[in-house]
């Protein structure tokens, strides 16, 4: 690990440890001043930590996330308030992301209306209701003291907002990329137009950063989050801009930390008068200005000129004036049309930003440093992702567009197969355009293997791409290009708890995926069944996987909530192990050859786990849908059947089942009978898997195959049917204890991998090229993330 990355990791590791300390302290120290005193050293440390980072993007984001939001959350938590105290049963795995990231869990998506509360509000001020009807707004123009309870959660709860977010963010990301290109022509753009672009840049950058943080948190916590922005460019007043549309996470933190305590004090002094909230509004803007000064100091290391504080104080004064005017004109007689008020509001924000906010950016040359960092990132991607990458994946997308159109025009069957065959051959060739081992192997796996097999199934109206009516082009592209399967509906429990049968395709399934439709006599334990956990037999196969109740013998389609909660932490641990393993492999020449092969086994598994986890995170964040798992802890396998059928690379297994196993089984049933038909089907699946692995190795190394990899899968394809026959013959008798069957299974996997799988891996110098590519990536990080000086 290079020094540049270590500095960033030190900061965030310190943050996580401090948050863990606060979590533990809250278990023993009651809320109040005693807990506050325990938290104060952490608050001071959080103000200092961003100074270890000199990149303006990383320093600014760390200051915003940690020095501001995390500190305020901890201050509230000290008194039993805020998002960290909303649920005493929060686990540490949930507490840490909530404290470190700018997120808030959506407690109640659609709270039921309270007609009594609405009646109370209208009777307090009868004129407000008429204004709301004229302007089509519900809370926009009510005085602040009429909204104290309603403002506890000012973020919109409309569920439609959640559906708009993915496309909305894609458009904004495209605008951000276009904006960066526009800076190349800054010498031809007028100064004031450049300032408008800078303002737009800040907004789009915040949207992008917070969207990434929310996507990460949504994946880790498996829960819905409240939105962070609500289209502030549509604001029609300062009250609407700052209260319900701009950076709602900050609004949600400043309200309980500053606004509500100041409001309570103000009411004790002046009573519950209409202008009692005005000092609270001013105090909130003052604190916001001071925190912005701290963030800017962390970014530029320059003493403040207090221009930012003046900017927020000005808006605080103007907002209180606006509230007073709304109160005075509560009849709505002088309200401006929305088009005019929106332009005035956004214009006022921009003009005051030009006057007081943006000059602070220019003082420490933030725009120049930002462009330098963007250039470093762009240079890395230009070196890492050659023009061939864009050509290859553009070709892949175009081919899937073509296949989607063919599916609408050409009926399923041989005719559609002939139409997609050119695409299949092209997919086998495309990975050869790369020179990076990781890009070659990843593209060969995603496209040449899975993408090709999905298209072959699609030609006959089967597989994940086939449905009636046809799925949208967006989902078609995602399922076709990525190793994913959407989890549409949990499968019902097996009617026979002792056996799990193979599912078969069902025409009624919306995506043509496998649903529970067992063939005749499938409940006969001699036909197409895998033994599943049973309490009646303590030594039964697969005791380690009790949550699996599905009839699907190969994929755990509906993991338990406990398993879903374990996955994020499990993945973090595997990511850390992967980084440590890369460092260890640099010294592989000092290790025994067999130990190096063990490390290579671990490397291949962790690479696949982390790669597929990244794909899952991105897909789940963009689609908002659950995905079927890719792995199921294969190191807990107690038999070959358990390893290959329920634990290892389950998405590839599902495709092989539909494309190879089921057609071979159905054909064999007419030749040798249904009782023994699964055995040649299993062997055929392993044979095809071996051939596809040969193709992936050829794409990675350009070395002619020696067919050892195929023999590896053929050997396992023979041993697995033998294991199935022995299980049928023994009928549950003479089962080995798990403590014996588990090392025997893993030992057989490792030994046969030494013998047949890894020689080809070493022959194409994959281990050497792997370390070279990671070294190039580390060099990129060294340029992008400057070391602490």
UniProtKB/TrEMBL annotation:
Residues 226-313, 628-714 form the Wax synthase domain. Residues 106-161, 489-563 are annotated as: Disordered. One of its GO terms (cellular component) is membrane. GO terms for molecular function: O-acyltransferase activity. It is a multi-pass membrane protein. This is Wax synthase domain-containing protein. Residues 537-548 have a biased composition (Low complexity). It is found in: Membrane. Keywords: Acyltransferase, Lipid metabolism, Membrane, Transferase, Transmembrane, Transmembrane helix. Residues 125-141, 503-516, 523-536, 549-563 have a biased composition (Polar residues). GO terms for biological process: lipid metabolic process. Belongs to the wax synthase family. The chain crosses the membrane at residues 6-24, 36-59, 195-217, 274-299, 305-323, 335-358, 384-403, 415-432, 444-461, 597-618, 709-726, 738-757. Residues 142-153 have a biased composition (Basic and acidic residues). Pfam families: MBOAT_2.
